[in-house]
């Protein structure tokens, strides 16, 4: 065993590379040499690669129509199948890479079908037992099933288990593929049934899988042991220093001096151990990669990907020469606080590169054990960033009413719009009022707090979003002037229910006076004063009694002016309603919210602090100790003056000279 | 007496162009650190002794001084990206004469003397890592009489902001 396989240099092994899918681990057979390639796949020996190369030609056979829209990972499949050992599981589209070790990660339930009948077909005599031809047939037929949709059905994975072929695809594709049950393929009637959990597999396939599984699981176990031995749960430290020399791995990686592959294997296991980013962040805060002959952190990229929230990284004793050798982590590890680079060629230049490091890592405080940013500076930077993200303070509504005209209007507007639009129109609108509505279908959403967007169909044809409506005629048609025109539109709009105005968190209503409005009496050429009112809020839409009613957010700008004398006291000159997807209104951040808590804190702390200071002063006077020593003494005796004095008396001979005030007689 | 009235299509067209021109100039100026030096130019300047001043409310904070607004953007807003997604506008008064001379009170039949209310909706992102927020901006544009007439200096804005209510709404 341990045949020394000739290795192509990294990044220069097209045959091997092309025959691989995504990351995963598989071992060809028990006892053979195991190596991982670049993506962390355990590599196969060159004999297999050679066979693949040959079989790849076989794939060009006419059984597979060109351009069926399948993924281009075909060679993997064809190659694996062609080998004599092809009876083992084949993961179509993933090649042999994503194999047994990671089977637990691959969920097959629900999206899988088992296809029977291949063995009695004419295609069974193909080198790949006809799998290739069958899959092409299934995809072609399924894609043609629904001619209207013109959707291409793709089989994502396949594996040959005895006489059956297990295929995996998206749920819609599975539904379509299932309809092919009973189709004739190469003279054999196919039976297509849903394929349950892997536990339902036949005895034969279990047998087939057992052998590689055991070996691969053993490898995975070995990785686990290595990880366990190198993990310090108290420090949350993963020690990956001198990883290649690890006795637990030496056997597997005896030929390589590049630890990349080991990292890849280990990180895949880590991915299995910690499912979420939060779990990883919680478990591992620090990593040491010391003494791994790294010339470029790119070789350990997978580490930064797997643990993006690391705070402390030790890269000492590597061959990192300059900033370039760290470029691979340029935009990674955003939470990095402490970076150690001693014993690298780059170490000599760190003083000049300090600023670049600070720029790259916004949280960096220690570079090679030298403080490059104090916690205060960091806090200041963070405060600055926060201020930059919200530069305009959000205050409460600026409602500068004139004689409660605005308030009274708003109090009537919303209930009347909900319940009696025509009486709203006759009360406040006239023949010169203009109304229009516009919808914003692309407004941003609040990801923590959003609701489904009801269809816009009822508004779309009247929406006067002038970003989109550019034709003057259409612009004119969508502005509704006069009570009758507005009534016609409002009747066609969905019913609404605005929350009560007392729910202040649901509204921001502002108003101030506006000069130069047309004078309905025609007396003032310079116009008259009125109010401009803006209402930001939300409403429920429609008359449904469903518990979860459709909601929208709106902004409505209304210009109020004096009415025609003897007809109306006030009138609406302009009413513009802008609708958008519902989202909670940005709430005012009263200045108090930022300033009050620290103030309170200070106030709370003051009396206690003052008391302690006073006690320390007393003790200082009594004993001649410095204020600091007095405070220390007090804090050790629980701030009890008598006990502190007793402690002083008992220990005063042991106290250093600098514990006492100068010029004070002891 | 019958008031002279504007042709509705002219009214809609002129108002739409005025609003569009404002939007195309104002928000890019806010986005561009250099453009912020010209923000005060978008507003009606306060005239001492006369009740002529812009009424500007940003997130509920009122101001009548355009230079103050410019200062806020210059000093507090390190980086901003405003994007307009929707706008709508109406004519308020076809013959806006608040600051007009006694001799120039007649209606301009080309719509050059209208006051226009504009409602703008869009997104804004402040700083490098800020969230994308939604804003609603309600403005009243009035004619800049200094830009009218044969002697007017070139390059002056035809419309100025008389009233603004800006709000982050998400």
TrEMBL record, chain A:
MF terms per GO, please?
A: RNA binding
Q: Please list the residue ranges annotated as the TAP-C domain.
A: 610-663
Report one GO cellular component: nuclear RNA export factor complex
Give GO BP annotations, semicolon-separated.
poly(A)+ mRNA export from nucleus
Q: Which Pfam families match?
A: NXF_NTF2, TAP_C
Q: Which PANTHER family match?
A: NUCLEAR RNA EXPORT FACTOR (PTHR10662), NUCLEAR RNA EXPORT FACTOR 1 (PTHR10662:SF22)
What's this protein's name? mRNA export factor MEX67
**Protein species of origin:** Phialocephala subalpina
UniProtKB/TrEMBL annotation, chain B:
Record InterPro entries = NTF2, NTF2-like_dom_sf, Nucl_pore_RNA_shuttling_Mtr2, Nuclear_transport_factor_2_euk
Q: Which PROSITE patterns match?
A: NTF2_DOMAIN
Top-level taxon of origin: Eukaryota
Q: Spell out the Gene3D superfamilies in the cross-references.
A: 3.10.450.50
Instruction: Give the record's GO biological process terms.
Output: nucleocytoplasmic transport
Give the NTF2 domain ranges. Answer: 18-168
Q: Which Pfam families match?
A: Mtr2
Protein name (Swiss-Prot/TrEMBL): Related to nuclear transport factor 2 domain protein
Organism, as annotated? Phialocephala subalpina
